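On to our target:
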Amino acid sequence: MSKVRVHTISLGCPKNRVDTERLLGVLGRNFAPAEAVDGSDLVLINTCGFIRPAVEESVETILAAIREVAELTPRPALAVTGCLVSRYGQADLAADLPEVDIWLSTRELEKWPGLVGAALGKKKLEALGPRRLSTGPAFAYLKVSEGCSHKCAFCTIPSIRGHHVSRPLDDLEREARLLVTQGGVPELVIVGQDVTSYGHDLGLKDGLKHLLDRLLPIKGLRWLRLMYLYPAGLTDGLLKHMAGLTGPGSPLLPYFDIPLQHAHPEILAAMGRPFAKDPSLVIERVRRHFPDAALRTSLIVGFPGETDAHFKALKDFVARTKFAHLGVFPYHQEEGTPAAGLPGQVSQGVKTRRKNALMKLQETISREHLASLVGSRLEVLVEEPSPEWPGLHVGRVWFQAPEVDGVTYVSGPKVKPGKMVMADIEQAQSYDLVALA
């Protein structure tokens, strides 16, 4: 049987990317990648539906694919999956976009081979191969859970993805070993809507501790990075356990991605965040156990009721804390969320000005931090050749997470994608470093 040539477009977060890789894995030996829509048998779009701009991007991407496949002979099949499907439902989307051949829920992987086979006129496709990595040789995401059981007033995730469901420890360890030993990736990035809640639904009192104990001994694992650490879950007990796992030769990175969303207690309470009194306590707790921790957070500006005083408190908090990395997002009034009906909705102009002010402050903080590293020698994980400069490669040092943080541009005779090299930091930019190995 000839291979199914699949062109993939994965939108949204790393968790979505993992779903795309699993969908491709389901095709097993029948799958072959296609670089473009032209020349493919199947175009797979994995959508995001978290906030309105993501919904608009997903719809625009689908419409562009519909136009492109319509001009080709033979016409590739068009499949759409992901959060857009889960949020708005297959029936309504199919009525508006009849040109799409397959609508797939991420909870229906077992149906995927049959649906694809039918769309392509094939009687049978073999199913359930290993994940097909799309992240290159340097790293892979390991999604440890699905959904979220928190009740943040602004968030659509629980309605889209359902309540928090952890994957079994044995499954995660097995997949991690395959990624590192057979896939050859030196870095695993742990993702989930709330990684600190891992295992609670499995009856594990300290699920994340158990997970770390399983993953850290994997031979060949050089870096283990944790993303999406819910602030309330970063207890002294967990942090003490993590600190005991670090040290020379340990893959566990002192990198903490903590989505705080805001700093003022009144706004945090309106958001439904469970640590509404003082988020500084979470930061102090982390730094007490990890004095040199790299901290990343995401913040929402323009939440209903946010005044100039609330925003000033948030800005002062950012100035004091000096995050290594910061993402700032204007609040979006999402249908079906409790926050959508709150009084005191903030104008788009005010949201934009507040976002720009925080990002300008963060640029200064980042530039000063990176400038202090010039002249030091750091390990760089090389990802890929630079598309712009021959001989230059794009990589990352330990405090730079893939796809969301800055990068380190590195050159030298031993530099190769997937390899880790020691390099001298020669130049610092606002968010990136330049190094020579």
Observations:
- The longest helix spans residues 348-371.
- The CA atoms of residues 10 and 46 lie 5 Å apart.
